[in-house]
Amino acid sequence: MSAKAERLHLRVDAEQKALLEAASQAAGASVSTFVLKAATDAAADVLADRRVFLLDEDAWRVFDEALERPAQEVSGLRELLTGSTVLDNPGQAQR
């Protein structure tokens, strides 16, 4: 890893600062280390589905065959996704 020469400056309110300080202390890291790790992990997650991935010939064949198979009905999935949940009408969801 190369030497760190770049800086980011952030403005936070007192509550955010206290939260970051408490979390970094619980993790056993400095606030800078904690925030940098959390931010770079989040950035990697955001970009993960936009990256190129490579497969060897056998893995590509399996992947391609899976993509070419016709869609199938999954028992119970339609009902699960269209039924009420506790998030729709709290206290009114089907149990």
TrEMBL record:
<keyword id="KW-0238">DNA-binding</keyword>
<comment type="similarity">
    <text>Belongs to the TacA antitoxin family.</text>
</comment>
<dbReference type="InterPro" id="IPR010985">
    <property type="entry name" value="Ribbon_hlx_hlx"/>
</dbReference>
<keyword id="KW-1277">Toxin-antitoxin system</keyword>
<dbReference type="GO" id="GO:0006355">
    <property type="term" value="P:regulation of DNA-templated transcription"/>
</dbReference>
<keyword id="KW-0678">Repressor</keyword>
<dbReference type="GO" id="GO:0003677">
    <property type="term" value="F:DNA binding"/>
</dbReference>
<protein>
    <submittedName>
        <fullName>Uncharacterized protein (DUF1778 family)</fullName>
    </submittedName>
</protein>
<keyword id="KW-0804">Transcription</keyword>
<keyword id="KW-0805">Transcription regulation</keyword>
<dbReference type="InterPro" id="IPR014795">
    <property type="entry name" value="TacA_1-like"/>
</dbReference>
<dbReference type="Pfam" id="PF08681">
    <property type="entry name" value="TacA1"/>
</dbReference>
